[in-house]
UniProtKB/TrEMBL annotation:
The keyword Membrane applies. Keywords: Fatty acid biosynthesis, Fatty acid metabolism, Lipid biosynthesis, Lipid metabolism, Membrane, Transferase, Transmembrane, Transmembrane helix. It is found in: Membrane. Its main location: membrane. This is very-long-chain 3-oxoacyl-CoA synthase. Signal peptide: none annotated. InterPro entries: ELO_fam. It comes from Muntiacus muntjak (Barking deer). The lineage of its organism: Eukaryota, Metazoa, Chordata, Craniata, Vertebrata. GO terms for cellular component: membrane. The keyword Transmembrane applies.
Length: 90
């Protein structure tokens, strides 16, 4: 039984290394191919996305179970506004 389990783990380890190598080749190959392309300006869409997630989290949370949800929403919005207005977002 032990040898069967050991062989199973060795076979799965080979698959893990294969997929890890393929992933690394994909990431670094893609980085090399995209090196000459112009960068996207995604700051505003990502801020809008974060604000939308914060609003939906607040609107769908049950205030009986989570009475601090509106306070957390205001904190998230104020932090995002501060970071965006001082251009501290990456």
């Amino acid at each position: 039984m032990f040898l069967f389990v050991l062989q199973y783990h060795v076979d799965e380890m080979k698959k893990s290394f294969l997929f890890s190598a393929l992933y690394a080749a994909f990431v670094f190959g893609g980085r090399h191919l995209m090196n000459k392309r112009a960068k996207f300006e995604l700051r505003k869409p990502l801020v809008l996305w974060s604000l939308t997630l914060a609003v939906f989290r607040s609107s769908f949370s049950n205030t009986k179970q989570d009475p601090h949800a509106p306070v957390l929403l205001l904190k998230q919005l104020s932090i995002l506004f501060h970071l965006y207005s001082h251009q501290l977002l990456p």
